[in-house]
Design goal:
Beta-galactosidase, Chain A, domain 5; mainly beta; single chain; binds 6-O-phosphono-beta-D-tagatofuranose; about 325 residues; globular; nine-stranded antiparallel sheet; 2 helices
Length: about 325
């Protein structure tokens, strides 16, 4: 059982007015605000698979995504922990799979907290937080053996009128330090990749995974897509990366205590090679903009904790 600093409070009925609703069926937790905005989170991987605002779906989910807990979910917001990409051979994570165990473990649903708007007296709640936890007790024997550290993760997904926030708290519960990386592998739904540009990249160096992991300076502030893109933009000073469609702001990713952003689109060839990526031309309708701490490793000493996250804002 994950110990929590703030235990879930039951939804406190406000004086009057509509309340957020939460439903959990043991596999998935769904929350909605009175405005109709909603979020759906699978316990498998604590993967957010849907985030809607003003009737629009902001996340891309493969039509062939496995939602049965057999495979990392292809789409939404998979949580990468404790290694990003293939684990390096000479590292404590070396026996773990690509992107670690966070996205392929069954998390515990810890509960819900709601907060009221400044709408005194009107009682309209304007945000709802869902908390999920993961400890070694939740790992498969194979994963526990592959990474035998004492840790606890608390993942909080907060839906508000202003957007969706995801925060990860990592705590070292053991007596030896460990290294980790983490990232929110967010698949955004977009209408047409040829009309998309990503901005906020000015002056940021990146590692280009399709050019043998060589380092480059980003030329200008924006990135357009004309083929496979798989880049790690590292050590940002500005905290916001934006997705524009037809030059109009569509989505913002605001990093909190995370220095890196991965940008990925597999394009036609990549999509063909990924069995659960469907439809195959779905690469035209998605782009991954992934806030993370993946350049190097964070070392967490015994009993220390680390917290970081992102805020996603939709302009729709
Ligand atoms: O975050 C980008 C990336 O690491 C790419 O290199 C890419 O292959 C992708 O993630 C998808 O990885 P997955 O293990 O989900 O197939």
């Amino acid at each position: 059982m994950v110990e929590r600093s703030h235990k879930p409070s039951a939804l406190t009925p406000s004086t009057t007015g509509p309340q957020p609703t939460v439903h959990s069926d043991g596999k998935k937790v769904t929350a909605s605000l009175p405005s109709g905005d909603s979020v759906e989170v699978m316990l498998y991987g604590a993967t957010v698979i849907s985030w809607k605002n003003n009737g629009h779906e902001n996340l891309w989910l493969s039509s062939n995504a496995n939602l049965e807990g057999k495979k990392a979910i292809r789409g939404g917001v998979p949580v990468v922990f404790p290694n990003f990409g293939p684990a390096p051979k000479d590292h404590a994570t070396s026996s773990l799979p690509q992107h670690g165990f966070g996205r392929i473990s069954n998390w515990e649903y810890l509960g819900t907290t709601s907060s009221e708007s400044g709408n005194q007296g009107k009682g309209s709640d304007d945000s709802i937080r869902l908390d999920f936890g993961l400890t070694p007790n939740n790992l498969s024997d194979e994963m526990k053996k592959a990474w035998s550290y004492e840790f606890s993760l608390q993942y909080s997904v907060t839906l508000s009128k202003d957007g969706l926030q995801t925060m990860l708290n990592v705590r070292n519960e053991g007596d030896k330090p460990f290294d980790f990386q983490t990232l929110f592998h967010t698949y955004f739904a977009i209408p047409d990749i040829s009309k998309v540009k990503v901005t906020g990249l000015s002056g940021v160096r990146y590692i280009d995974k399709i050019l043998n992991a060589t380092e480059h300076d980003s030329k200008g502030n924006e990135l357009r897509f004309e083929g496979t893109v798989d880049r790690v933009y590292k050590s940002f000073t500005q905290d916001t990366t934006s997705i524009l469609v037809d030059d109009k702001p569509r989505l913002d990713v605001i990093r909190d205590n995370m220095q890196d952003t991965v940008i990925w689109n597999p394009w036609k060839e990549g999509a063909e090679a990924i069995a659960d990526f469907e439809p195959k031309d779905g690469y035209k309708k998605m782009v991954c903009v992934e806030a993370g701490a993946v350049n190097g490793w964070i070392t967490l000493e015994s009993q220390d904790s680390f917290e970081a996250g992102q805020i996603l804002k939709s302009h729709l």
